[in-house]
């Protein structure tokens, strides 16, 4: 089945050697139509340090840190008209290219509308673990998410996911989370829209030097569980959540915010 794939790699302060090597590995293993690096707050001379990159790689930069969710959304929006399958992989390469390919293949083959990699699946191959504290927090969050969300997964936040463009077009206007909670919302909304979701065990090689604040991120993720559940129930036309939503303000979605930013940039350019 010939379904062109577009891969987005969100990056903030990446290790140049690691990122460059990972881009080569992704290009060789998956042969995608395009790999788009969404680079927030680029460091000086980073492009030169990446060295020669595969022809399919393009780099988009943003002057400030936007957050993982915003970066992936921007990348997906840029690629959606030119590919059939969208995917993203974290820039640290914690999911090796061969393992990431198994996530993408689940969508390319037509077996799933959304495939999410899983480090906590019983069949996952964890080559190196996170720190004890981060692992325990992650395990606790996954346990909590299974009780809040309708989608029963082992792992909601592995940085390896793929979905069809058709699924993305249905999901895109329901996403609001700009940061690491974006994964949770993606899964919750996809489930509410009756997308076929597949959880794919992956090989995981934890990388040190994360830019994520453990305590701060955990608190934001806990809040995101509540809002993601709420938004999923709204899609399912849950009467209680419709009443709750009627009392809240109208927050713009990520795609609306991105469109507003593009309009503002165009006005300033004039």
Provide an overview of this structure:
- By secondary structure, the protein is of the alpha/beta class.
- The chain has a single domain (5-262), classed as Spore Coat Polysaccharide Biosynthesis Protein SpsA, Chain A, CATH 3.90.550.
- Helix content is 46%, strand content 18%.
- A 7-stranded mixed β-sheet has the order 3-2-1-4-7-5-8, with helices on both faces. It has a two-stranded parallel sheet with strand order 6-9.
- Strand 1 (5-12), helix 1 and strand 2 (34-40) form a beta-alpha-beta unit.
- Helix 1 (16-30) crosses helix 4, helix 7 packs parallel to helix 8 (214-235) and helix 8 packs across helix 9 (239-246).
- It is globular and about 55 Å long.
- The model has no long low-confidence stretch (mean pLDDT 88).
SSE layout and pairings?
Elements: E1 5-12, H1 16-30, E2 34-40, H2 46-50, E3 57-62, H3 68-79, E4 85-89, H4 97-108, E5 114-118, E6 125-128, H5 132-148, E7 160-164, H6 165-171, H7 182-192, E8 197-201, E9 203-205, H8 214-235, H9 239-246, H10 254-269
Parallel strand pairs: 1-2, 1-4, 2-3, 5-8, 6-9
Antiparallel strand pairs: 4-7, 5-7
Helix pairs in contact: 1-4, 5-8, 7-8, 8-9
């Amino acid at each position: 089945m010939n379904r062109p794939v577009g891969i987005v790699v969100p990056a903030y302060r990446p290790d140049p050697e690691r990122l460059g090597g990972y881009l080569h590995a992704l290009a060789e293993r998956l042969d995608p139509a395009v790999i788009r690096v969404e680079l927030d707050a680029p460091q000086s001379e980073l492009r030169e340090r990446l060295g020669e990159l595969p022809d399919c790689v393009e780099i988009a930069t943003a002057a400030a840190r936007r957050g993982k969710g915003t970066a992936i959304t921007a990348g997906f929006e840029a690629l959606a008209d030119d590919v059939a399958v969208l995917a993203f992989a974290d820039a640290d390469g914690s999911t090796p290219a061969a393992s990431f390919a198994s996530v993408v293949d689940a969508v390319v083959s037509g077996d799933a509308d959304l495939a999410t990699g899983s480090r906590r699946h019983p069949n996952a191959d964890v080559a190196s673990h996170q720190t004890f504290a981060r692992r325990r927090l992650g395990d606790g969050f996954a346990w909590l998410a299974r009780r809040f969300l309708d989608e029963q997964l082992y792992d909601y936040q592995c940085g390896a996911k793929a979905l069809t463009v058709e699924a993305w077009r249905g999901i895109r206007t329901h996403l609001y989370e700009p940061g690491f909670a974006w994964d949770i919302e993606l899964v919750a909304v996809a489930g509410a829209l009756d997308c076929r979701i597949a959880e794919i065990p992956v090989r995981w090689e934890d990388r040190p030097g994360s830019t994520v604040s453990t305590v701060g991120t955990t608190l934001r993720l806990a809040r995101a569980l509540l809002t993601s559940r709420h938004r999923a129930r709204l899609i399912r036309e849950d009467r209680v959540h419709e009443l709750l939503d009627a009392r809240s303000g109208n927050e713009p979605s990520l795609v609306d915010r991105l469109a507003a930013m593009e309009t503002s940039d165009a006005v300033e350019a004039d």
